[in-house]
Amino acid sequence: MTPGASDDEDDEARADLSGEIRLPATLDSSGELPARAEIAIVGGGVMGLSIAYHLAHNDLTDVVVLERGYLAEGASGRNGGGVRQQWSTELTIRLMQDSVELCRRFAVDLGVNVWFRQGGYLFLARSAKEVARLEKNIALQNRCGVPTKMLEPRAAQEIVPELDLTGIVGASYNSTDGILFPWPFLWGYARQAAAYGVRIFTQTPVTALAREPGGGYTLDTPRGRIHARRVIDACGAWSPKLAEMIGVTIPTWPIRHEICSSEPLKPFLRPMVSELASGLYCSQSMRGEIVGGVTIPGHGSTYAMGSTLGFLATYARRLVKLMPVLGDIKILRQWAGPYDQSADGNPIVGAVPDHPDFFLACGFVGHGFMMAPIVGKLYGEWLTGGAPHEIFERYNLARFASGASAAHEQEDFNIG
Amino acid sequence: MARKIVLCRCEDVTLADLEHCVSRGYRDIEEVKRYTGFGTGPCQGKECLAPMATQLARLTGKTPAQIPPFTSRPPLAPTPIKLLANAPEAHRFEDDPT
Amino acid sequence: MAVARRLPAFDPARGEPVEVRIADATVRAYPDESVAAAALASGTRVLSRSLKYHRPRTFFCLEGHCSGCLVRLDGVPNLRACQAPCTQGAEVEGQNAFPSAEVDLLGAVDFLFARGLDHHTLMTGSSVLNRLANKVVRQLSGLGKLPAQPARELPEVGARVVDACVIGGGPAGLAAAIACAERGKSTLLVDDQLRPGGSLRADPRGGRDAAEARWAAARAAGVEVLARSTAIGFFPEDDRGELAIASPDQLVRVHARAWIWATGGYAVNLPFADNDRPGVIAARAVGRLLVDHGILAGDKIVIVEVPRVAREAEDLEAALADAGAEVARVPLADVVGARGRSWVSGLDTVAGRYECDLLAVAAIPSPASEGPRQHKCKVELDPDAGGFRVVVDEHGRTSTPGVWACGDLTGFMGTDAAARDGARVGAGAAASL
Questions:
Q1: Are the beta carbons of C274 and B84 separated by less than 8 Å?
Q2: Which of A169, B22, C198, C336 is 20 to 30 Å apart from A34, CA to CA?
Q3: Residue C180 above 60 pLDDT?
Q4: B78 touches chain C (CB under 8 A)
Q5: How far apart are CA A310 and CA C148, in angstroms?
Q6: CB pairs under 8 A between A and B
Q7: How many angstroms separate the CA atoms of B34 and A118, rounded?
Q8: Is a pLDDT exceeding 70 seen at residue C99?
Q9: Are C73 and C91 in contact (CB under 8 A)?
Q10: How far, in Å, CA of C119 to CA of A212, rounded?
Q11: Nearest-CA neighbor of C67 among C269, C360, C356, C324?
């Protein structure tokens, strides 16, 4: 064969997006660290970035975010995207009501799609004891204005026709709970924070942290040293490692939770479905995948995030019992992330006693992502001159030393 | 007819999409994977990881040897849930004592 | 126009033909071939539409590693047609297109976003628009529908304990397994294709017979061969470290003293404009159709190639020409782009346009390194080797003790060299046990 003549059509073969408005880069991949900043946030997950965004939104832009790995490397990039208001403590419920509202507005406020879908959360009970637990929580949620309902099994099946009701005795359902896609939250917060002037550095671990005698802190990284008047420890499960550099002990430890996703399917599953007996949860993402996990008892405290056959098998076994029609559905990928378990199941936020200008945002036990929008907002308002919200007192690190921890309500709905 | 150089077939990621991603500052292969979606589809990067990584090296001024692959996770092929349910590794909860 | 056709002179020892239904048409097929081959031979062109731009999609690698041939088979979604054997009465349907894969209204997206689409920022201007966008995207999402029924049964799980486990039944893997078994080691060979042989089945020089002979030799040497089986993961924390294998009917858990990875390289695409057009198929797939199935995939075939695989491209050209096709070869450096709508109709090059009905892409096979990476073996991106090759010493040992690698997986070397490499590495691994 020999070639003939070509058409005159314009050749977009090297098609590129030039001609569009070039946006400034969000991440500072190769720039130098500034010598000083008003606030250094250590940890570029959703909590650190939400705080950075809200600080800058409230006109405090002299902020640097230091992320030790790639963006979304920590738990923020590994979770299932669940957002719920079904909790067992009033404070958490009320915070989550605010967070849900922020999630609803995120795409337009921050200019990045997060695919927040309020399809509800359905918790399934397999015993009278579990039913009683749900009913107690529902009463509290209703008092706060969250419209959770207790359902008979058949009513649960109307919401999820694929359910096998064998062994299910009741369910709780709140239609305003939902699911989001986690990664875009990081891009959205980072993009807007950067647009305000916040500098975000990835691949920049803090190797040393020290108090300066005159006030403030020095942080050492492979890219150089930075002085910051205030430091926020937003390292998630790794928060204790930063804090111990200045002699602060945080009673949290990492628990590995594994998770997986299936091949993409046309939309069929409306709510997040969870069963209390196993801690199994699953939902359908905006890409159509079934994303879910289950709690493996005996997955001890570790930072190692490897994958096990035990998880796949446990999840498969529970899932196919719950929704038999999924038997021929294929798992595409499994991964893992750390829950940041605190000694009393409640978060640890606020200033650290005897360490001026050092702040914490950790201990969220696997629901830090859904809390980040509101916690970031509250920090943003407080550290720019507003009054501190009660969480910075109620959930302060000081409670462990003073023994006040036992007196507080403990959140017991840290499921999934 | 729209002309695109498709680098990731499963997720429809073109060379232009990759260039856009890099211009936004996302240059680590793990960040590029998440932002563009390459490697997250049914083939999990079998067809596209090496070609994307090679282009990423070129766009970021690195040698190919400096670009690591993204994390390889199980399962290495889409695996039906039914095959896994009876594995002895499965934890049996109280209501499933066999 | 797709003109794939069966060559009448092909070896008739195929077994009794069966009938399968492909998108409402009844098609004659053979039990030893894949649904994909049968579909191609009966004129199937477009199978589905791509996720973001809704561009027409169809077969590409025919080896179970890309996502080009996903179909709904007997009520189960998202199955690879190229790995599904033809059984009597099988029902095959396309997915993800309205009203059909050939004519898809959403193909307009591809035109609207000629330069590309950043779906992250799309329609974030107002909350009304954004809520609408969310709803539309969800309705469009997903590839296949839920299965028609629950799975018939939950199979029991098997187990093997062996001296050597070889993953990959191509020229390197078969040779390595034979070497181990001949030295008295209990050997398991895992291969994910319909029938073992790997790239041998696409090589016009040896043909089907070479693949069958080596497979038979492996069995004769005492190798247990698990065909149609995929190693889905090495799990270091489970049962002191085990490999899980997904076979058609059950999971098999394997413990071995030596792991020999011989997974070869994937048949990948090359970067040029509209390289995803249906009718742009991996050259190795075109070779496989010819050599293993007796199907000539086109009448006017252009092979796009890179220099490293010139010998393979030359062999393919000769075999296609012998079978009656008009063939041309074009170096990638000269390519501008593919032309055509729902099937390729031509190739634009710097020297002008070639008319064609098939574009065979001859890229360097990309080392299939996912498994060794789970053992934490060192890999290195080397474009001349095809991609992320597994780094080995002169004995085929990877950076992880107890783990070997051979053949194209360590860098493209071709079928002859892969067979020699497999034999050598297998012998060394056996000697170490």
A1: no
A2: B22
A3: yes
A4: yes
A5: 28
A6: 148
A7: 23
A8: no
A9: yes
A10: 46
A11: C269
Exposed, middle or buried, A223 (CB in 10 Å: 0-12/13-18/19+)? middle
Q: State the CATH architecture for A36-77+183-251+345-407.
A: 3-Layer(bba) Sandwich (3.50)
Residue A26 has pLDDT above 70, yes or no: yes
What tokens appear for C54 in the block? 């809704």
Gap from A235 CA to chain C (nearest CA, Å): 26
Half-sphere exposure of C272 (CA within 13 A, CB side): 27
Residues C181-233 pLDDT 10s: 999 999 999 999 999 999 999 999 988 899 999 999 999 999 999 999 999 99
Chains that touch B (3 or more CB pairs under 8 A): A, C
Tell me, yes or no, if B76 comes closer than 8 A to chain A by beta carbon. Answer: no
Half-sphere exposure of C342 (CA within 13 A, CB side): 15
Task: Check CB contact of A304 with chain B, cutoff 8 Å.
Answer: no
Q: Choose which CATH entry (3.50.50.60, 3.30.70.890, 1.10.260.40, 3.40.50.300) describes domain C159-266+367-432.
A: 3.50.50.60
Which domains does chain B possess? 6-71 (1.10.10.1100)
A188 touches chain B (CB under 8 A): no
The residue behind tokens 């040992």 is: C397
- The Cα–Cα gap between C225 and A71 comes to 44
What is the radius of gyration, based on Cα positions, of chain B? 18
Interchain pair B79, C55: CB under 8 A: no
Confidence of residue A3 (pLDDT cuts 50, 70, 90): low
- Catalogue the E-assigned strands of A269-322: 272-275, 280-284, 289-293
Q: CATH top-level class for A118-176+253-341? A: alpha beta
CA–CA distances in Å: residue A124 to residues A60, A153, A381, C423: 45, 8, 38, 56
Give Rg (Cα) of chain A. 23
Spatial contact of C122 and C113, defined as CB atoms under 8 Å apart:
no
Min distance A352 CA to chain B CA atoms (Å): 33
Asked if the Cβ–Cβ distance from A307 to C150 is below 8 Å, we say: no
**Residues paired with C344 in a beta bridge:** C340
**ipTM of this complex:** 0.96
Nearest-angstrom CA–CA distance, B88 and C244: 12
Distance from CA of B91 to the nearest CA of A (A): 5
Interchain proximity C141–A328, CB inside 8 Å: no
Beta-strand ranges (E) seen in A212-354 are: 217-221, 224-233, 252-264, 272-275, 280-284, 289-293, 330-342, 348-352
Counting every residue written for chain C, the total comes to 433
How far apart are alpha carbons C131 and A117 in whole angstroms? Answer: 9
Provide the token pair at A132.
């009683």
pLDDT in tens, A143-166: 999 999 999 999 999 999 999 999
Per-residue burial over C115-138, b = 16 or more CB atoms within 10 Å of its CB, e = otherwise: bbbbbbbbbbeeeeebbebbeebb
Element (H, E) at C27: strand C25-29
Chains in contact with A, where contact means 3 or more Cβ–Cβ distances below 8 Å, are B, C
Contacts of B82 in chain A (CB under 8 A): 316, 320, 327-328
For C5-111, CATH number out of 3.10.20.440, 3.40.47.10, 3.40.50.720, 3.40.50.1820 equals 3.10.20.440
pTM for this entry: 0.94
CA angle A60, A61, A65 (to 5 degrees): 115
DSSP annotation of B12? T
- Across A249-278, average pLDDT: 96
Nearest CA in chain B to C77: B80
Read off the pLDDT of each residue in A121-137 and give the average, rounded to a whole number: 97
Taking only residues 272 to 291 of chain A, the set having a beta carbon closer than 8 angstroms to any beta carbon of chain B reads 277-278
User: Cβ separation of C374 and B74 shorter than 8 Å?
Assistant: yes
